[in-house]
Amino acid sequence: MLCLKFVPPLITLARWLGSVLLAVGCWTVAAQQPQNANAHLQNNAALQSLDAQVRLWARGQPGLRTRDLQMQALDSRVTVQACAVPLQFETPFANPMHVRARCTQPQWQLFVFLQDSVLTAAPVSNQRAVSPPAQVNALVAKEVLKRGTLLSAHHFEVRPVSAAGMEQQLVADPKWVQNMELVRDLLPGVPLRTYDVKNAFMVKRGQEVLVSAGSAAGFVVTAKAEALQDGILGEVIRLKNQESGRSLSAEVTGPGMAKIR
Known about the structure:
This protein is an alpha+beta fold. The protein has a domain at about 200-260: SH3 type barrels (Roll). The chain contains one helix and 15 strands, in the order αβββββββββββββββ. A five-stranded mixed barrel has the order 10-11-13-14-15. A hairpin with a 5-residue loop joins strand 10 (about 210-215) and strand 11 (about 220-225). The longest helix has about 50 residues, at about 10-60. It is globular.
């Protein structure tokens, strides 16, 4: 017995396949959008928390408490992680408006810049506005620098670069990179920005550390200890005396070195 079999025209079949592919593509985009939106909301919430905390901190600083300050906008490429504990702030440089924010859970640090809050727009003047300088001096990499490189002044040269609204993030002083470590690769000719680096660990957990006690005026006693945690320059860390097994605290003074204060 003969059976008739319907074969759809090629045009109809092509349209059907196109509809299926379009539906799959729309579903994929719809699935990605909530994830991207969620990440964007989390970043905005972390930025708002950072801004609020640094404002509150600035109100308690002797040289800043009389000024209404706010945080300058960060580069759009910088992502801020939510911190599970209150942020820690310090001014490691001469400029009190240059603030380092540190989080311990999870561990990260970020340099932010404070500026006076703008309450009202400046009045329109008939005089021609003075344009900001097109270029500023900054440290520029001489060679390819890999992530994790312990930096020093010889890695860079100072030369004019286009600021493009990033004047406060560019680094010009070669001494600034001392005891700093790169957090991302840097290509030759690329200027260094404050968020490209972090404080380098002078001591790492499990490392043998030479610990000293005493003063130069009298006598100094040294002993070997095992580091129980990582430490940057000037940070007080916990160690264990290798001979007695007792725990002690000492300030990191250099690579593999600490001193009991």
